[in-house]
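User: Here's a structure from my thesis project, written as structure tokens. My advisor, Dr. K., wants to see whether a designed sequence matches the one we expressed. Can you design one independently, without my sequence as a hint?
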């Protein structure tokens, strides 16, 4: 299953919420992202079908190994790109918004170059 940008965003959100130490439910994802229950339910269903997410009997969501791999990749891209833009003088809010737009489309090669630059400066 090819994962669209929106799917990557959902995985990243589940990852971020789970890093806070809380069990993650669909309602938490919807609140964090500002999406309706039906939208989140459909997306989570597709992510389950794709093997990226599992839900336990109580409805708590967990990332599969593949889901975690994608989420960590998006999260790393988001944080590195945000730092990169801040280092260029962009305000934090704009930097985070722009990083979110770019993280899904930037090539691995360009991202690695930016990552090396940020980590060495």
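Assistant: Designed independently from the structure alone:
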């Amino acid at each position: 299953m090819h994962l669209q940008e929106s799917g990557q965003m959902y995985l990243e959100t589940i990852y971020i919420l789970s890093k806070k130490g809380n069990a993650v439910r669909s309602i938490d994802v919807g609140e964090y992202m500002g999406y309706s229950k039906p939208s989140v339910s459909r997306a989570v269903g597709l992510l389950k079908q794709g093997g990226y997410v599992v839900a336990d009997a109580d409805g708590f969501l967990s990332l599969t190994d593949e889901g975690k791999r994608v989420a960590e990749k998006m999260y790393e891209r988001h944080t590195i790109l945000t730092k990169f833009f801040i280092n260029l003088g962009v305000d934090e809010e704009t930097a985070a918004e722009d990083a979110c737009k770019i993280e899904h489309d930037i090539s691995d090669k360009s991202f690695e170059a930016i990552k090396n630059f940020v980590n060495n400066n």
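When you compare it with your expressed construct, this may help: The longest helix spans residues 65-87.
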